[in-house]
Amino acid sequence: INVLEHIKKDRVYDFFNLIFAKLKPDGVFIAEMPNADSPHGLSILFSDLTHEWAYTRRLLNQLFKIYGFEDWQILPSDVSSNKLIRLAQKIVTKIFSGDDRFMYASNLICVAYKPK
């Protein structure tokens, strides 16, 4: 699941080409990686010397579009279920703008489908 952040930047395009080529029509690609849109994700990125690269929702959207995936979702993982923490997160996010679910999620989960 946490593989993409270990791929060197200059090999990411090759990696996505390979993924798309190997998937059968209607095949599903699922990945999880540190969320570069979040301070929590950046701390995870820099907590492991083998991490090479970070991903944002914007970058992932570009990659899925470039490689021909027709349908994909990018979801936040591990958002707190504590109501007080969530309220504080929403307030802080309103001040800085953005989507609070992604701002506080340490990882992104991607689900992308190869067209039929």
Description:
There is one protein chain. This protein has 116 residues and is an alpha+beta fold. The chain has five helices and three strands, in the order H-E-H-H-E-H-H-E. The chain has helices at residues 12-22, 39-45, 57-66, 83-96, 100-103; strands at residues 28-34, 71-76, 107-113. Strands 1-3-2 form a three-stranded antiparallel beta sheet.
Which descriptors would you attach to this protein?
116 residues, alpha+beta, globular, 3-stranded antiparallel beta sheet, 40% helix
Furnish the topology, listing elements before pairings.
Blueprint: H1 12-22, E1 28-34, H2 39-45, H3 57-66, E2 71-76, H4 83-96, H5 100-103, E3 107-113
Antiparallel strand pairs: 1-3, 2-3
Strands ordered across the widest β-sheet: 1-3-2
Question: C-alpha Rg, in Å?
Answer: 15 Å
Order of helices and strands: HEHHEHHE
The first-to-last residue Cα distance is: 24 Å
Shape: globular
Helical segment count: 5
Main pleated-sheet profile:
3 strands, antiparallel
Helix share of residues?
25-40%
Number of strands: 3
| Mean of pLDDT | 81
Low-confidence stretches: none
Q: Assign the structural class, choosing from mainly alpha, mainly beta, alpha/beta, alpha+beta, or little secondary structure.
A: alpha+beta
Q: How large a portion of the residues is in β-strands, by DSSP E?
A: 15-25%
